[in-house]
UniProtKB/TrEMBL annotation:
Coiled coil: none annotated. Residues 7-16 have a biased composition (Low complexity). It comes from Paraburkholderia acidisoli. GO terms for biological process: response to stress. This is MarR family transcriptional regulator. Keywords: DNA-binding, Transcription, Transcription regulation. The keyword Transcription regulation applies. Residues 1-26 are annotated as: Disordered. InterPro entries: HTH_MarR-typ (IPR000835), MarR/SlyA-like (IPR039422), Tscrpt_reg_MarR-type_CS (IPR023187), WH-like_DNA-bd_sf (IPR036388), WH_DNA-bd_sf (IPR036390).
Length: 165
């Protein structure tokens, strides 16, 4: 895939202003603004859906990370869950008290504690995945499957590009 020059990209933006342009020819909403707006809406909707299961969004994210990555240290969990290590400590304490995660010493380094998902945490995560699926289906409601897959791939590429920049 080739990249367009800055001038060509600016011209393309001007030509495609209709869905995102402001009133009376104002500049279109920035992509970063739209992504931020979507993030806040999705976070709010997910938080509401997860609350019905007694789970917060940071807890759901942490449980999902543990399922995807397996055992992780608190620092790894914090980084992969987009929260500070201090916030991760609080999230882990709550999840451990509910029996959703367990701690065990790292066999390679006894100073590190590894967290892992328990059966109860995995079962809860399955229920919450259904709630998250409903939110995502609502978000993609008027898109065909191909467009939804394209959006997923494009967002993945954007995240990869910014991580490597």
């Amino acid at each position: 895939m080739t990249r367009k020059s800055s001038t060509a990209a600016a011209n393309d933006t001007t030509a495609t202003q209709s869905p995102t342009s402001g009133a009376h020819g104002a500049r279109p909403m920035r992509l970063s603004y739209l992504i931020g707006q979507l993030d806040r809406i999705v976070s709010r909707r997910l938080s509401e859906a997860l609350a019905q299961h007694g789970l917060t969004l940071p807890q759901y994210t942490a449980l999902s990370v543990l399922r995807a990555r397996g055992r992780s240290s608190n620092a790894q969990l914090a980084d992969r869950s987009f929260i500070t290590p201090q916030a991760a400590n609080e999230v882990v304490k709550t999840m451990e008290s509910h029996g959703w995660v367990m701690r065990e010493p790292d066999p390679m380094n006894r100073r590190i504690v590894l967290l892992s998902l328990t059966e109860a945490g995995n079962a809860l995560l399955g229920q919450c995945d259904e709630a998250a699926d409903r939110v995502e289906r609502a978000m993609l409601d008027d898109m065909d499957t191909e467009s939804a897959h394209t959006l997923h791939a494009l967002l993945h590429n954007c995240a990869r590009n910014l991580r490597s920049a």
